Amino acid sequence: MNIIAKKHIFLLISGTLIAASIGAIAVFGLKPGIDFTGGTLWQIKSTTDNRQLTTDNLRDFFEKDLMVKNFIVYSQETNQSFLIRLGHLSEEEHQKYFESLEIKFNGIEELRYEAIGPAIGKELRNKAFLAIIFVLLGISLYVAYAFRKVSYPIKSWKYGIITLLTLFHDVLIAAGFLAFLGYRLGIELDTKFIVAMLVVMGFSVHDTIVVFDRIRENLLKESGRFDLSAIINDSINQTIARSINTSLTLVLVLLALFFFGPFSLKYFVLVIMVGTIVGTYSSIFIASPALLIAKKK
């Protein structure tokens, strides 16, 4: 496969995905969960075939009966439940509201109840973003150091910069997908999705380094050969089967978790799966051709 010759096609595909992701984040936004903002997340479901339990009726109940001002109600179609997000509740208020719901709608099952204070939410948010920044910088510096012996014809620091850009590419597309899920299904950004982003980065950099390491070996082995594009293309072809097979193994596991795992992890697994596929694509079709572009620049 002459991947290098078709690099502009692959770069165009990535550019389109990045533009779509930026558009999704700009238009839909990333809905912060209570982990980051503080408050209460409540998931309920009717224990009977109660047609009165609808999104509109729940909104009216919280607004008129309970006199709650700031709240959001949206439905989860996958398990016919409702998610209610509101300010911080005491345990006494929680029990009072639940009893009122049971009386009003005649049989309610509580599937999930989480309450986090605003101070803890702010601290978690700051630490989550710091974790992502430090991981990105740490990986880039490590790659630049690891490739210090192959400073010709590409400077070692360029390997680190390209790795950083590749990771940013993967995380941005995964974040855009999460913004779309938030718009369509009301999925919120919480700590488990930050973990998903870190998993995507870890797997992506693993794949990228495998390809880069083969390029490094071939550059050292064929130091007298000056056709860099041929060396990069040969290196990609030597590692592409390994990269795809490794990713496919993980994707099969993630598919099993998505279809048969707990509902609470369904979209967490989906984000990792999308990030894994994008990360494999970028490692093969974006990171390596970018080395050739970086050499010319």
Automatic annotation (TrEMBL):
GO molecular function terms attached to this record? protein-transporting ATPase activity
Localization of this protein: Cell membrane
In this chain the SSD domain maps to 128-293
Q: GO biological process: any one? A: intracellular protein transmembrane transport
Give the main localization category: membrane
* Family listed: Belongs to the SecD/SecF family. SecF subfamily.
Question: In its UniProt entry, what is this protein called?
Answer: Protein-export membrane protein SecF
